Amino acid sequence: MISGLYQGEDGGSRLELRVDVDGARPTGRVSGDLFSVAGSTTTYAGSFVVHSPTVRAEGDQARIAGRGAFSFDTPAEDVTVTLTGGSGTAEVAGRVYPVAFAFPHFRQVLLEVDSVVGTVPFASYATSALPAPSGCPPRELSVAAAYAEAGIGLTVAEPGVIPADGSGADLAWDDAELHHAMTQQFGLFADAPAWRVWLLVASRHVGGYRGIMFDYNDAHQRQGSAVFYDAIKGDTPQAQRAQLRTYVHELGHAFNLLHSWQKNLAVPPQPLGPDGGFGDLSWMNYVQNYRLGGEPGYWAAFPFQFTDAELLHLRHGFYRDVAMGANAFGTGAAEIAPFERPVEDLSGLRLEVRAKEWFGFGEPVVVELKLSCTGEPRVTHSHLHPDTEFTQIAITRPGGRTVLYRPMMRHCVDHSAEVRLDPGNPAVYRSAYVGHGRDGHYFQQPGEYLVRGQYIAADGSRIVSDPCLVRVRYPAGADDHRVAELMLGEEQGKLFSLLGSDSPELRAGNEALDELIDRYGAHPLTVYARMVKGLNAEREFKAITAGKRLRVRPPDPEQGVEQLSAVAREAASGGLIDNITLNMVMRRLARAEARQGDLGRAHAVMDRMVTVFEEKGVNPIVLGQIRRQAELTKAALGAGS
Q1: Of 3, 161, 274, 316, which is the most buried if we count CB atoms within 10 A?
Q2: CB within 8 A of 407, min separation 6: which ones?
């Protein structure tokens, strides 16, 4: 065997050479990364891959040659590698490097795992513990072993346990707290591309998710993921198997692998696998969405490995497309242009994107998504919000350019959340803030925008909406201009996405919202600042310190009541806040009242919520759902008190 990672230098140039022509699941490729060395510094220079090399062996010598595809322009595209034993030469881009065998794996990555006290990190799973597909050899698989089979060497650092100070009984994490945790952990990593990744084992997520790759918004993405112990814990073989898949899946996102059904959304786009990607037997598919039998069919056929296309990306993707902190998520990953309307649609489902008549300049753009059946009852999943990535949003800007909304944080939903659409439940609705995401603010200039959605149903059908017209008005005066400036900062966009945060990294954004409330309190758009500040005050906030202790800031219900009451009054009287968001605000307001010890006022808020929506004239089915929601909230607050 000659496959593996070779290293060598020629003057001030260093080569990391990957030979992948024999051994386990060889891809028949040779690839490499080039670095410039100057003094004590090393800088990435470029990458190449030879897709169809010729391999000749004579005695103990092997000669590999072929035309390379380079990430940079070079007149010398031929690559020649000659190996004898564990050393040899490689001619790349006109330079000859002496190389020596370094590792049996093609890439070496440092994995740091920290766990919050009370959680137990996953260790390993024996694939023989449950029935496995024929031809799948029994073995003990840890996360490192699963990646080793893909040709990636994971070195697991000494795990750390994060003690909790003042946590109380609730250790549920939200997106803002995870974002803050990652900003604190960045100090352990260079603010640059590197083969290292952080995994947090947390208790649970407020949304009930199994895992999340939450480092998704800044210049150096894909360095942080989390798994949620309460959703995946257990000692049974089924639980251990599911934990292994969750860990490998979330770390796969850090290597820039998209979900199996999203590979057409990568840059550059790549073809989907069978059944629109839902037929992939991959760590990156969802078991419940596997098209040949759902979860039982998946586990009956899954060989505990990545697909061939994913293997090619992990081993031979260009350095910046794979290394953590380099190219943004979705760039160069294993995945056709964004969606277009199907030529035939027999799904029986309809997707609508709706928005109010106009938005002020700088106002957070929120759209309503409605999924309904067009005839006979249909069963599908209820993951309609774009943050779960079963729904995508395309935005055509006033200049004609269309961009894909990419959420600041992406949630992995490893459960079906099945919904039946019929005359008794004709539609499901979601409110989505699409004004800001991974690419910053999407509605930064006045004018007319077209917003279109695509929903991927449980059977793989791709339901495309008609375009929704979104109008952003021109500012009418100096105050409108200043308010828009205070709303459109990058940190403010993150705060709207996260519904507030204590993170010092977002201090300037919080100060801008404070100024908005103090100086422009009567301006209509101030309601959004009050909402963000009120929602953040009403909840506790977890922070991981530089010394790796978990500290919890308790809720400030008084501040929450003050700000959210103002939001509820304005929204109920026909203000800017949409109905779904108003519903959430009033339920959180009720919780704040209960936390102040006034259960009667909390119940009164829920009664008022029902009255508000009665006066708004919402349809009877939705109103019935709101009434039930109000009663459930009262019961939960009573039990919590």
Answers
A1: 316
A2: 216, 386, 387, 389, 437, 438, 497
